[in-house]
Write a structure and sequence with these properties.
Helix content is 0%, strand content 26%. Among the domains are: 157 residues, Galactose-binding domain-like (Jelly Rolls), CATH 2.60.120.260; 192 residues. It is mainly β and 627 residues long.
Length: 627
């Protein structure tokens, strides 16, 4: 007869059928095994009788006492000591009683019969797997890297962020001639500039041509509302170019592997702004073009042409010529009639004017003092003797092993359990990923950075403070006027770092380097994250009298050295010299005037401090998931 077990039992529930009790163990109804009847304990054997005690031996008799001496006025001799009595013989010891016989060991009780073990219940059918949720549409970053649809392309939807490639994606299924232009950057801020441009690229499929990278310039101030420069600029955010510069990548082949291309760019003398442009053209068809890290860096420029070398020190003034001897005084006339007044002695000739001293040669620089000898290292203290190890304690004896208990008999097999219930259907999966946007945040004072809610990754630009310009000194107190000037301070160094998959508790300490005052270096800027590598820009050096301060370096990321300050220039005329101060260098990565070195002091006939460098900045690009 089939047993109808209850549905939805809990672990430990019991069910009785036909006098048999079943218990639910979480997967099947089990019949508990019944233990066998325990055998009776055997009787304890009788204790053996104690042997009788032997009789005590008799005490030996005492010896006779000696006689007392007679009483007399004269003391009698002491009586002799009586002989000691013989010691009695020791009694015989009683024999030891016989040990009682050991009682017989009781018989072991008979093992009880084990109950039969129930059959194992059948495993329930596995529940159907829940349906997988539909994958959400992949979101896109609003204008990754600030890219704008360009080169006859006005459709901003052709530009998106590809999360799996961590890159900008330029693609259209309906247009095989599309382009994108990156934000314009300023050029010709210093004479004879040279820039290093770089970009990483790959495609979704190999093609033998159709890939372009170009550089366009614009001669003039960028109009309001314009962000990029491009040829065929039909997008309202793009400015029509003045010219294309060089041939960076023209109709090139492209593969599915990441590659990097560099381009050294010298701006046209009339150019003011420039932009990098990429094209996904006919040869690539509808394949996707992926771009990472469009980058530009100022790597060289020169200051104004150096003037004539510094004029030698002014020669000492020639000694004044000696005064001519005074003419002798005429003699006094004889007394009497008033004689006529004697002729006045003639005035001595004036001494000739001393010749002007020769121009002194320029004094040689004093020799640098020799470096002091390094002090001898102090002798190290002797190492104390090592103490002897203490003797090991004696190891305790191992306790005796207890007797092994008798093994219980195996229970019989239980009855077979019922078939398990069918599993419930799984829940529907959650929806897929959501859209992503970009947010730019800048910091100009010390603070703690906390990401905007939903931020998945960031790119950080850290720029240090610029060095102060050199202090100038001139002299107009002598016969000639010398107007002195000094050289410019160095630009602050910069470093660029990327941080991906930010944890929920991510934060970073931000330090902003101040611009150095005249004659002083700039301060360090730092981005110190709770997770990941610290990046920093080091401050630019102060300008000197004749040489511009060196640009600061970077550390921890993609490092960009600041530009050296320009040297002062000198001109002379009519025995006088006139110096022009040098301009400060620009920062390793340019955000307006942030991190620029100060201009040198002067021209002045006295003392004048150099201009202060500008403070640094930290800029954070956040890539935020929109739910």
């Amino acid at each position: 007869m089939a047993v109808n077990f209850p549905n939805n039992p809990n672990i430990g529930d019991t069910f009785v059928s036909n006098g048999v009790t079943f218990e639910w163990n979480g997967s099947a109804w089990k019949l508990p095994a019944s233990p066998g009847v325990k055998g009776l304990k055997g009787d304890k054997g009788d204790k053996g009788q104690k042997g009788e005690k032997g009789q005590k031996g008799e005490k030996g008799t005492s010896g006779d006492k000696g006689q007392k001496g007679e009483d007399n006025s004269t003391k009698g001799q002491k009586g002799e000591k009586g002989d000691v009595g013989q010691k009695g013989e020791t009694g015989l010891s009683g024999g030891k009683g016989d040990k009682g016989d050991k009682g017989d060991k009781g018989q072991k009780g008979q093992s009880g019969t084990d109950g039969s073990k129930g059959d194992k219940g059948q495993k329930g059918d596995k529940g159907d797997k829940g349906q997988k949720g539909q994958k959400g549409e992949t979101g896109k970053i609003d204008d990754p890297y600030g890219a704008v649809a360009a080169y006859s392309n006005q459709n901003q939807d052709t530009i998106s962020y590809n999360a799996s490639e961590l890159a900008l994606e330029l693609q259209s299924s309906s247009d095989s001639t599309i382009g994108a232009s990156f934000p314009a950057f300023r050029v010709n801020l210093a004479p004879n500039e040279s820039h290093k441009l770089s970009i990483k690229f790959k495609a979704s499929a190999d093609s033998s041509d159709g890939f372009y990278v170009r550089l366009y310039e614009y001669d003039g101030a960028l109009p309001d509302g314009k962000l990029v420069i491009s040829n065929s600029a039909t997008n309202s955010l793009a400015q029509e170019d003045t010219r294309r510069v060089g041939s960076w990548k023209e109709n090139q082949a492209i593969t599915t592997d990441w590659q990097t291309t560099d381009f050294t760019y010298t701006p046209t003398s009339t150019a003011v702004w420039a932009s990098i442009v990429v094209l996904n053209w006919t040869g690539m068809g509808s394949n996707s073009l992926y771009i990472r890290d469009p980058f530009y860096q100022l790597i060289a420029s020169s200051g104004d042409k150096g003037g004539t070398g510094t004029k030698g020190d002014k020669g000492e003034k020639g000694q004044k010529g000696q005064t001519g001897d005074t003419g002798s005084k005429g003699s006094t006339g004889d007394t009497g009639s008033k004689g006529s007044t004697g002729d006045k002695g003639s005035e001595g000739d004036a001494g000739s004017k001393g010749s002007t001293g020769d121009k002194g040669s320029q004094g040689s620089d004093g020799t640098d003092g020799s470096k002091g000898q390094k002090g001898a290292a102090g002798s190290g203290g002797g190492t104390g003797a090592k103490g002897e190890p203490g003797s090991a304690g004696a190891k305790g004896q191992k306790g005796q092993k207890g007797d092994t208990g008798a093994k219980g008999a195996t229970g019989s097999t239980g009855s077979k359990g019922q078939k398990g219930q069918k599993g419930q259907k799984g829940a529907t999966g959650s929806s897929g990923t959501s859209n992503i946007r970009t947010r730019v945040r800048s910091y100009t004072s010390n603070t703690t950075y906390s990401p905007t809610s939903g931020t998945k990754s960031i790119v950080v630009y850290c720029v240090a403070g610029g060095g102060g310009g050199g202090n100038a000194s001139g002299d107009t107190s002598g016969e000639q006027n010398d107007y002195g000037a000094a050289s410019g301070g160095g630009g602050g160094g910069a470093s660029i770092g990327s941080y991906y998959n930010l944890p929920s508790n991510f934060s970073a300490a931000i330090t902003i380097g101040g611009g150095g005052s005249g004659g002083s270096g700039g301060g360090e800027s730092r981005f110190n994250p709770s997770t990941g590598t610290t990046i920093q820009g080091n401050g630019g050096s102060a300008g000197g009298q004749s040489t511009g301060g060196n640009g600061g370096s970077g550390g921890g990321g993609l490092n960009c050295t600041g530009h050296q300050g320009n040297n002062r220039s000198t001109s002379s005329s009519g025995g006088q010299y006139y110096q022009t101060p040098g301009n400060g260098g620009v920062a390793g990565f340019v955000f307006g005037t942030r991190g620029s070195g100060g201009n040198g002091g002067g021209p002045t006939g006295g003392q004048q401090s150099g201009q202060s460098g500008t403070n640094g900045i930290v800029v954070v690009y956040e890539y935020i998931t929109i739910t």
